[in-house]
């Protein structure tokens, strides 16, 4: 059976795996974005706090993904919980780092001007600082998403959802007639999803970043 025949015979399962893969990454990115921006907001004013946040999230990223999921299985069991936890933790570093860099890069004169017209600190943060820091934050989100697309494939080790199941099944049955097709289908599916997500982020950037800031 050639690759195209394999896709035709397994398209329903592949679409289901692709949907689960995309859904897992999207949901983890939402949580990682909220946590990462919050950490950035809480730490960007202090050098030591910002460095600690960056160092801590960097340390998490150095843990091999297979080892991370293996360590989480005894605590959270198999399936979705260890997958979501691992992906969320891995997604933090680029968002935290870019949030800190973006917020520190806001022109102090603009913040002072907002303060001068009577804006409270939360209002300055929400209406001045975060909008101006949004371009680097969005870049961090894009980088995290690309990383998680690949890491999510390891979730199959913990009976997690996604296209990693195709890759693992193919590797486990190397030598059989469809083993290579399974690995190739899972790999190409992840690449296509990554490109689609990145295109969506480009569109989001064009819709949410004013032309003057983009320039």
From TrEMBL:
Coiled coil: none annotated. Its main location: membrane. Pfam families: BPD_transp_1. PROSITE patterns: ABC_TM1. It is a multi-pass membrane protein. InterPro entries: ABC_transp_perm/SBD, MetI-like, MetI-like_sf. The keyword Transport applies. The keyword Transmembrane helix applies. Keywords: Membrane, Transmembrane, Transmembrane helix, Transport. The chain crosses the membrane at residues 24-44, 56-80, 183-204. It is found in: Cell membrane; Membrane. PANTHER family: GLYCINE BETAINE/L-PROLINE TRANSPORT SYSTEM PERMEASE PROTEIN PROW, OSMOPROTECTANT IMPORT PERMEASE PROTEIN OSMW. Belongs to the binding-protein-dependent transport system permease family. This is ABC transporter permease. It comes from Streptomyces violaceorubidus.
């Amino acid at each position: 059976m050639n690759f195209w025949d394999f896709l035709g015979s397994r398209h329903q399962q592949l679409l289901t795996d692709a949907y689960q893969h995309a859904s897992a990454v999207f949901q983890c990115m939402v949580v990682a974005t909220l946590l990462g921006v919050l950490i950035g907001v809480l730490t960007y004013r202090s050098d030591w706090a910002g460095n600690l946040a960056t160092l801590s999230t960097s340390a998490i990223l150095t843990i091999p993904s297979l080892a991370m999921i293996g360590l989480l299985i005894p605590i959270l069991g198999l399936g979705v919980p260890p997958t979501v936890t691992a992906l969320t933790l891995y997604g933090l570093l680029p968002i935290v780092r870019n949030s800190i860099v973006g917020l520190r890069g806001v022109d102090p004169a603009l913040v002072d001007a907002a303060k001068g017209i009577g804006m409270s600190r939360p209002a300055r943060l929400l209406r001045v600082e975060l909008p101006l820091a949004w371009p680097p934050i969005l870049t961090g989100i894009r980088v995290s998403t690309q990383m998680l697309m690949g890491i999510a494939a390891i979730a199959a080790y913990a009976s997690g959802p996604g296209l990693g199941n195709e890759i693992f099944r193919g590797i486990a049955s190397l030598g059989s007639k469809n083993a290579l097709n399974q690995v190739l289908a899972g790999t190409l599916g992840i690449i296509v999803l990554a490109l689609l997500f990145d295109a969506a982020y480009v569109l989001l950037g064009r819709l949410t970043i004013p032309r003057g800031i983009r320039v």
